[in-house]
Amino acid sequence: MKKPSDINLSVQMGPLTLQNPVTTASGTFGYGIEYAPYCDITRLGGVTVKGINLEPRKGHCQPRIVETASGMLNCIGLQNTGVDVFIKEKLPFFHNIPTACIVNVNGSSLDEYIAVTEKLSDQKGVAALEVNVSCPNVSKGGIAFGVDPLMTERVTKELRGRTHLPLIVKLSPNVTDISTIARAAENGGADALSLINTLLGMAIDTKTRKPVLSNITGGLSGPAIKPVALRCVWQVYNAVSIPIIGMGGISSGQDAIEFILAGATAISVGTANFSDPGISVKILDQIIEYCCQNSIDSISSLTGKLDVS
Ligand SMILES: Cc1cc2nc3c(=O)[nH]c(=O)nc-3n(C[C@H](O)[C@H](O)[C@H](O)COP(=O)(O)O)c2cc1C
Question: Which CATH number fits domain 4-60+78-202+221-302: 1.10.10.60, 3.40.50.720, 3.90.550.10, 3.20.20.70?
Answer without folding.
Answer: 3.20.20.70
